[in-house]
């Protein structure tokens, strides 16, 4: 498998965590967002969305990080990233999608660049970023506080798709100096997740294109 | 089941289509976004995200439209909204997420209101809306053109989660006068979907709170 990747992409970070958790080898193909390599013709031929990440499995390219992670979970079921019970699966997916739909897409590089083109300076862009983290984390804090058994994982006492999404979002929230004091449960869970080798090895700064 | 709903919510529209496809009865509970009913204490107690839709199944509330639709598909598998093959499932989820992550969240009411607060007038807000539809539909057009058998459905020749997401997004694109000429496959598929009773009955203007 080839992962079209960029060290700083939060969505790619999710996929790296999932690949590591499943113990799967992959080829790391860097597409530097700042150099617009994800908008070059060769990459658009593979992924017409022009976004990172994409996973090539033989001749098939899967786009969208959550579609990739669900695929990996279906084909390589150990360790499972979703519980067995349908209502529990739904709760985990709700948490993952609260990040993947309602925080991250508002704050990725292309949107920040667009907000800048609307006349916002650095302070304005940072305020935009922090606003959507704060909006999204406010609800998620309550959901995770309700469902986490011991503030080690988002749901119950085992790893899930929600954790795969939380760790990269928390990493980015710190990078943008978001105020995390209203979100003690999310901070506690993230702090535990960072101790896990699969998460540690997926960090942006240890990827080959970060150097 | 109770669906916390708003006639104009594109995400709620997806869930209404899925409930109709599965032939499931539900109680329609309207939360008027324009009156901020989704931010009232009684609703936040059920859904701390403060977003529409949410589905209450007995005492459990499921948030996030795609988590709800995947739940409905797991518990009520006929007709299936995902193919059986894992790579095919991944392609369908990619299309659905291309809409649910990379178009819709940038264009929902709270974001448009925020863009207005940054100093954009009606023209600026409409330009923002059309920009993200155009960006997202450009990639999706190619994906659907590649995978649709007869331009009746997004993937192959049967209904899927991708169709459940496309129809509401196309409805909204028309409402905001987006230029659809570059997306003939998406228009053809949507035109077919509109003929299906489950989609027709889920349209915003025929919901009880639209009157």
From TrEMBL, chains A, B:
Record flagged with keyword Isomerase: yes
Keywords: Isomerase
Protein name according to UniProt: Maleylacetoacetate isomerase
Gene giving rise to this polypeptide: maiA
Domain GST N-terminal intervals: 1-80
SUPFAM superfamilies: GST C-terminal domain-like (SSF47616), Thioredoxin-like (SSF52833)
MF-aspect GO terms: glutathione transferase activity; maleylacetoacetate isomerase activity
Stored NCBIfam families: maiA (TIGR01262)
Origin superkingdom: Bacteria
InterPro entries, A to Z: Glutathione-S-Trfase_C-like, Glutathione-S-Trfase_C_sf, Glutathione_S-Trfase, Glutathione_S-Trfase_N, GST_Zeta, GST_Zeta_C, GST_Zeta_N, Thioredoxin-like_sf
Organism: Steroidobacter agaridevorans
Family membership noted in the UniProt record: Belongs to the GST superfamily. Zeta family.
GO BP terms in the entry: glutathione metabolic process; L-phenylalanine catabolic process
GO cellular component terms, A-Z: cytoplasm
Domain GST C-terminal residue range list: 85-211
């Amino acid at each position: 498998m080839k992962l079209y990747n960029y060290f700083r992409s939060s969505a790619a970070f999710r996929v790296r965590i999932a690949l590591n958790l499943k113990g799967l080898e992959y080829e790391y193909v860097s597409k530097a967002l700042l150099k617009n390599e994800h908008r070059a013709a060769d990459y658009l031929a593979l992924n017409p969305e022009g976004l990172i990440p994409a996973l090539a499995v033989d001749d098939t390219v899967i786009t969208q990080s959550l579609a990739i992670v669900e695929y990996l979970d279906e084909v390589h079921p150990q360790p499972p990233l979703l519980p067995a019970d349908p209502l529990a699966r739904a709760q985990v997916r709700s948490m993952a999608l609260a990040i993947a739909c309602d925080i991250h897409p508002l704050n990725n590089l292309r949107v920040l660049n667009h907000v800048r083109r609307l006349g916002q300076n650095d302070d304005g862009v940072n305020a935009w970023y922090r606003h959507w983290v704060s909006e999204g984390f406010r609800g998620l804090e309550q959901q995770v506080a309700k469902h986490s058994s011991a503030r080690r994982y988002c749901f119950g006492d085992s790893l899930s798709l929600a954790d795969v999404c939380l760790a990269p979002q928390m990493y980015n929230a710190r990078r943008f100096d978001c105020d995390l004091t209203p979100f003690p449960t999310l901070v506690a869970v993230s702090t535990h997740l960072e101790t896990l080798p699969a998460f540690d090895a997926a960090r942006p700064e240890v990827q080959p294109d970060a150097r």
